[in-house]
Amino acid sequence: MTNFRVPGRGRVQHGKPVTFTFDSKTFRGLEGDTVASALLANGVHLMGRSFKYHRPRGPVSAGSEEPNALVGTRRGKGQFEPNTRATVQEIWNGLQVNSQNKYPSLKFDIGAVNDRAYMLFSAGFYYKTFMWPKSFWDKVYEPFIRSAAGLGVSPSEPDPDHYASRYLHTDVLVVGAGPAGLAAARSAASAGLRVTLVDENAEAGGTLLSEPQVEINGQPAWTWLASELAELEKLGVRIMTRTTAIGYYHQNMVGLCQKLTDHLKTPDAATPRERLWRVRAGQVILAQGALEKPLVFDGNDRPGVMLAGAAQTYLNRYGVRVGSRAVVATSHDSAWYAAFDLAEAGTFVEAIVDTRQEPRSDLVTEAKRRGITVLAGYTVTGTSGRLRVSSVRVNKVQNGKVLEAETLTCDCLLMCGGWTPSLHLFSHTKGSLQWDPEAQTFLPDRKTEDCQIAGAGRGLWGIEAALTDGRDMGAACAKALGKSPAVASVSVGNDRPGTGVSHTELPTDLNPGKARAFVDYQNDVTAKDLRLAVREGMRSIEHVKRYTTNGMATDQGKMSNINGLNIAADALGKPQPQVGLTTFRPPYTPTTFGALAGYHRGDHFEVTRKTPIDGWAEAHGAVFEPVSQWRRAWYFPKPGEDMEEAVSRECRATRASLGIFDASTLGKIEVVGPDAVEFMNRMYTNPWTKLAPGRTRYGLLLGDDGFIRDDGVIGRLTNDRFHITTTTGGAARVLNMMEDYLQTEWPDLKVWLTSTTEQWSTIALNGPNARNLLEPFVEGLDLSDEAFPHMSIAECTVAGFPSRLFRVSFTGELGFEVNVPARYGRALWEKLFEAGQKYDICPYGTETMHVLRAEKGYIIVGQDTDGTVTPYDAGQGWAVGKTKPDFVGKRGLARPDLAAEGRKQLVGLLTKDGKTKLEEGAQIVFDPNQPIPMKMVGHVTSSYHSVAAGRPIAMALVEGGYSRMGETVYIPMPFGTVEATITGTVFYDPEGERLKL
Amino acid sequence: MTAHINLSQAGVLAKSLAASVTLLEPVARFSLRTGAAGQAKLSAALGLTLPTKVGQRTQAGQTEVLCLGPDEWMLHTSESLAGTILQACESVYADAPHSLTEISDREVTVRIEGPKASELLTLGCPRDLDKLPVGEARRTVFDGATIILWRDAAETYRIDVWRSFAPHLISLLQTGCGELAAE
């Protein structure tokens, strides 16, 4: 195995070897290595296959922008991750790494036939190929595309890791801990501000980690870095590494994803894998630097072809030479320094190929001093080598003419097409960009948030420029926050300032139509594809992007967007700003679902509200159903019972003797004040003035539009105090609506609202034995029908607990609802249940409650109504106080269409065969023989098997239903058409005798 | 699946080197609502001055009052004093119309204390806690549930939360106690 490690060089721990596997083969790296740097140190460039053509690929970068070296990593059972960037993942002993998109092996891959057929896979290939015949789409094309789509294999096991999240408030958030970010943090922190400095890399330093030759204020770069970080920490700066600012949202909210354990062999079990930070910052400083652009030429994707800056990073930060014989191809000064560094480390530099006719003379002199051949005014026209570059074809360009080719032997080709300021986060804010024609790039222009962009992120070049700018931007933020920071001077030695030019595809003497000159490596988009898209009519960069998929891969076009734009603009013959730049969207780099879900999984998935009696229900085998945020006991099956059997038994037991039901989730609102009754009159349809204290009334609440919003039984405790109940799901909504009216429409009313939903546990007792059970427990109240008739309320004690007792029924049986302070709910329930044994007391759930109320024709808001139903439609016209001067919804009800004849009205339905239970939601027609599409005249709202009626019963909204009593309607179902008769909605005890026991 | 916590037993719910979470014994709680005109008479009846800035608190004996809105206060007092509060307010009702509604059982209170108590709260509370002075309180949210957050000392807080939301909230505080201790 060849060793490309440079002893003693870089920031890796040379004394601490680490072993890991790549495609089951064991490799040795060093602590501090990434997968990519460790493999490169072993001479391995081939790390994956490309998505469309299955071309062999190796790392092209050394950072998070990597489009090629995507691998699968496995840390343990269930801890498999596809598409991990090898350039980011740190190694540890035992890490398992696998290459992707290859079969049967990375070095010999059958899918590479796509590469031979590349002329077929042009831009818009899918749109053109998978058009006809139409019938092929479902069975052939879509499955094919789906199996071909996506890189890597999705994890198939549950994720055993856990994830976390936090909120963070900071005065200044600095994104990027390179020289600009460090200087900005220093300025802001020394002004006494709370400063947070984040960087996606394993350690802070940014460019300084790749340029150790720099001297800052007389200190070597890395010495200065260490002392500066210590100083920042002393100033209280929160420094977070392995932390990516993934999105920049409104009002300086920035999302950070912090990776905590992926780099550890044995993380602490209590430590989450990742943590999402929701940061609210007074000021944000974007110091994200610039990303190096590839040059676009035929064969620019072969393993061994990489960015010059990346090679410099591998050398200086990781102590790895990316090859032993390098050709450097560039249009920017920066790559010259990479060449010099590599030459110094022992790599033979075959030549520096510069596209510019006259590169900077000091660089040329330096190259000559080192014996490096300089080819100025050259182009690159091809590479060769199957799994690794072995030579590069270059040509002199003279007066726009590409001359004869020369071939240079190499094992790595380092390219640089200039640098693109990283504008991703700025783009998230919808800040506008300005085209800089000289630098041939976009720069940040008008800002929409309180932020500053510092350093290379706004087109500056060189360490000194970055430090100075960062310092000033930090000071600007401090000033904006009302501080006056001290600003120190900066001196930098051995800096490497530079400039460059920008290109579209490099000129070639060969047929450009056959060139595989890649622009987007991850999605295999070539320059030819972009030009084809323009020829086929794409004009906007957004269309070009979608047609070619340029910039649509997981790297979001970090390398490809500007090259793509330049080529598209050239093909269109328009300046770049007129063609436009596609919008970057969060997240900046791929982010796990785990990080976004945070703590919300398993037991903590979402808030599940439970009543004080919930634990009893659970212990007694209840099956639960969710009702808004609550979980409620649905039914209580006995061993061997299914739901229908359990519900029938519960219904029968309640009507025969006694049922007990947990109604604690009912919304409750206390209305108090001298104007309480006036408020009630205005809010509800019913009249309240004459309701005496100690009495209750069914209340109906409408919206302005006249449609039913909520209902419930309301008790008047005193002249100035009402106890409202609402539906379970409507509690919060109703209180909000009432507060809204009170605060905006009637601020003059002396009345106040308090939610008491959770103050009370509510136990409903229903059945002929309800009073017999309750009476011995009650003190301070005569429970007889004469003294405490149906629809009464009183304060008393029940089993020694202070109580608000309602006589009310939602079943049609004699009924009471006992409200006790929530802490006593469970105890009271247990006492009643125990004493109720002699009445065969039966706990029942929400399903039985639904059946019993349907047998009586009592509506459920939201089931029998849907927001388009008036009180008259629902048979509740009796609840509307017609002589009241006003109430919410009164004017709505007067609208002609709401007062019209023949609206959908709530009626009963009985199936003619007496056996078929209708399906809730089923559509109803008058004539089953009419042509399809039939005219639908309503739908079934409630449908149950009724023990009391001895047959299925249903309620439905039917056009003109009230005037169609006895008529037949039809319900077409998949199994056949069901006939049903329209009836009234009361199926049991129509006289209400059972309420009067 | 859902979180289970026994809310009838006061005591320590979680404890680590970072922080501890304790369910406190029940207290009497009232929501007091009144307009500007009634405040002076109610203050006199209660023997304290109702604070008028949202978030401000006053304490008189065992009774604590927190201003939650221009016309809204939260009263906490010992259970033995609940009747006294009810009578005191009732006695001025005619001259100072108001709503005094008992909500002792609507919510429960947990205390959070320890070196990382503030940090623990950042798991679920989006407010800037540096801007919540000791001795004040705020109505805010924690992991989706409405809470009242009382800051009693630099690293001592109380959270009032509606009873049914408490298990969800407490389970995250328990997770957080372990997570912060591992840092």
Automatic annotation (TrEMBL), chain A:
InterPro entries: 2Fe-2S-bd_N, BFD-like_2Fe2S-bd_dom_sf, FAD/NAD-bd_sf, FAD/NAD-binding_dom, GcvT/YgfZ/DmdA, GcvT/YgfZ_C, GcvT_C, GCVT_N. Residues 904-989 form the Aminomethyltransferase C-terminal domain. SUPFAM superfamilies: Aminomethyltransferase beta-barrel domain, FAD/NAD(P)-binding domain, Folate-binding domain. Residues 488-507 are annotated as: Disordered. Residues 515-598 form the SoxA A3 domain. Residues 171-436 form the FAD/NAD(P)-binding domain. Residues 615-884 form the GCVT N-terminal domain. One of its GO terms (molecular function) is sarcosine oxidase activity. Signal peptide: none annotated. GO terms for biological process: tetrahydrofolate metabolic process. Keywords: Oxidoreductase. Belongs to the GcvT family. PANTHER family: AMINOMETHYLTRANSFERASE, AMINOMETHYLTRANSFERASE, MITOCHONDRIAL. This is Sarcosine oxidase subunit alpha.
Automatic annotation (TrEMBL), chain B:
It comes from the Bacteria. One of its GO terms (biological process) is sarcosine catabolic process. It holds the Pfam family SoxG. GO terms for molecular function: sarcosine oxidase activity. InterPro entries: SoxG, SoxG_het, TrmE/GcvT-like. This is Sarcosine oxidase subunit gamma.
